[in-house]
Amino acid sequence: MKKKLVIVLGIVAGILLVLYLGISGWKSNQERLAANRENKRLKDIEDARIADSVDKLEKEVFREFVLSPKVEQVYKNGDLQISFDQFRFTNEFIFDRYAQIYSSSWHYRQPERGNKYLVSVSTITSGAKNPVLPGIYAYYVDSSGIFLAADFKYEFYFWSDYGSYLGNYHETGNDFAYTETIRFDLGAVVREEYLKYPILILVSNEGRFSRNNKYLGNPPVEYTSTATVLTNLSALELSQNYKVIRILNQEKLIPLKEKLKSGKK
User: Fold this and answer.
1) Chain centroid offset of residue 89 CA
2) In a structure prediction context, what are the per-residue pLDDT tens digits for the chain, which is 265 residues long?
3) How far apart are CA 265 and CA 262, in angstroms?
């Protein structure tokens, strides 16, 4: 009889232990879930605070650097300096001029219909003998952001004659190893629909275009880039990584300023 009672008591004790452990585990699990929910709630609050701060900062930077930017007529970065002629829209991009005995010649490109060429002439002075040139871009601005309109290509402005253009002999006037200052034509294809927006001409703070030999075609050297061109910029990216050197259609910034004043963007 006693043996049976001991067995029953053992079974009851085991059941009670299991129930106790189950209840304790359930409570512990509920506490963990509550703690996780509270941590998530606090994280959501912090994320919202950070997002709100970033949004406010972006709007402040947008107002300062995009709607009222400091325009640097001459780009300077270390021992590299670039001045620019007027930027203009045209149906013909002219470059690679060279003198002949009785006349002058040049090369040109024309845009497809619905597009325009945005062109300028730059004068680059470098202390280095083989500088890496910055990227130059056109970005248009509307109430929703800053978007790529076009990226410029460097082309040589002038060759002393047709022979140097062909690469029959070295053109020292187009080599920074021999001369401090070289002129370049800048050209970029822009869709006509972008002309209704204000357009910022930006120059990157870092070098992106390197001098390379051209194995097919003329002239024998060119400046090329493998850098990624961003299709849109935040105002923070613009302020940190680029200089504004021109504003085209500047009067079209006024409506954007009014929108920002009214709390819209």
Assistant:
1) 22
2) 555 655 655 665 666 555 665 666 666 666 676 666 656 665 555 444 444 444 554 666 676 657 777 899 999 999 999 999 999 999 999 999 998 766 679 999 999 999 999 999 999 999 999 999 999 999 999 888 899 999 999 999 999 999 999 999 999 999 999 999 999 999 999 999 999 999 999 999 999 999 999 988 899 999 999 999 999 998 889 989 999 999 999 888 877 777 766 655 5
3) 9
